[in-house]
Amino acid sequence: MAEGGVPSVGQVVLSPKYVAGLIDGEGCISIYKVDAPDYKRPKLQLQITVVLREGWLLRYLQNQWGGSLKRYARKVPQQAPVSRWRLGDLAAVPFLRAIEPYLLAKREQANIALHFRASSGNDKRTNPLSQLIREDCYWCLRYANRRGVEKAA
């Protein structure tokens, strides 16, 4: 056991059901644009992010799935610091495949993200059809992630 009664990172394996609940409640599945001078158009990348005060929980995610973990101090001194776990592009595919059957609120976003990655091949920068599909996934995911939008049942 680590300090505070929290099991050490190597002792815990989070179930796909638990992680899906975490992503449904606190996670974000997004595609973002990176402007790079060596590309003719912005590069699109898939990203999964979770921000929590409980950094120890995010360390479990990082240990199990990889990605990066960063701690941030808050601007208001009375607020507790937060940690952000980020899983990028290629590493996101096995992660999403593992949790997708258990997602409730973000299943649509996960499926769009998986379609986005499936449309990527070695020719993603030169193949116009692949570019169109990826751009379409970007806009579909942006729409699906809008806050305050009530989805039809």
How would you describe this protein?
With 153 residues, this protein is of the alpha+beta class. The protein contains five helices and four strands; from the N terminus they run H-E-E-H-E-E-H-H-H. A hairpin with an 8-residue loop joins strand 1 and strand 2. Helix 3 crosses helix 4 and helix 4 runs antiparallel to helix 5. It is globular. The chain starts with 15 loop residues before the first helix and ends in a 9-residue tail after the last helix.
State the order of secondary-structure elements, H for helix, E for strand: HEEHEEHHH
Determine the number of helices (DSSP H or I, runs of at least 4 residues): 5
Pick out the low-confidence regions: none
Strand order of the largest sheet: 1-2-4-3
Whole-number radius of gyration? 17 Å
From the spread of the alpha carbons, the general shape counts as globular
Percentage of residues in strands: 15-25%
The helix content, as a percent range, equals 40-55%
How would you summarize what this structure contains?
The chain is 41% helix and 20% strand.
Descriptive labels:
four-stranded antiparallel β-sheet; about 20% strand; 5 helices; about 150 residues; alpha+beta
Structural topology:
Blueprint: H1 16-26, E1 27-34, E2 43-52, H2 55-65, E3 68-72, E4 82-88, H3 89-99, H4 107-118, H5 128-144
Antiparallel strand pairs: 1-2, 2-4, 3-4
